[in-house]
């Protein structure tokens, strides 16, 4: 029999060969501590992660196109673009300052616009009720 067939034809049918048999067969030796152990040194470098500054350009553009109360949306858009420019240059503090101003202007524009929409709805609904009542009183009802 060849060396390859001995692994398949063992006396322990159905049982895996023992560790000693494999160790002797393949010449595995147990390794201990390395004879000349070198000191392992580690170096930790703290890399500052890139600070993400939201510039609110999309929100400002939305307010400019749809809720431009007192031109606050347009001014917020200008500050958002300035914030993005400062971020591209690398001035994080300036970008945060412009972004904060743009955020405040966007909030103000949104609040003013929502209030204007609510006031317009109230005026339209009360006016339509008054007009409907005045037409109902003036027109006589026919018996048909």
Compact description:
The protein has a domain at 57-138.
What radius of gyration results from the CA coordinates?
A: 40 Å
- Biggest beta sheet summary: none
Beta-strand percentage?
under 5%
Low-confidence stretches: none
Describe the structure.
The chain is mostly helical and 144 residues long. It has a domain at 57-138. The chain has five helices and no strands. It has helices at residues 3-6, 19-26, 57-65, 72-89, 92-138. Helix 3 packs antiparallel against helix 4 and helix 4 runs antiparallel to helix 5 (92-138). The longest helix is centred in the last third of the chain and has 47 residues, at 92-138. The model has no long low-confidence stretch (mean pLDDT 78).
Explain the layout of strands and helices:
Blueprint: H1 3-6, H2 19-26, H3 57-65, H4 72-89, H5 92-138
Features:
5 helices; mainly alpha; 60% helix; single chain; 144 residues
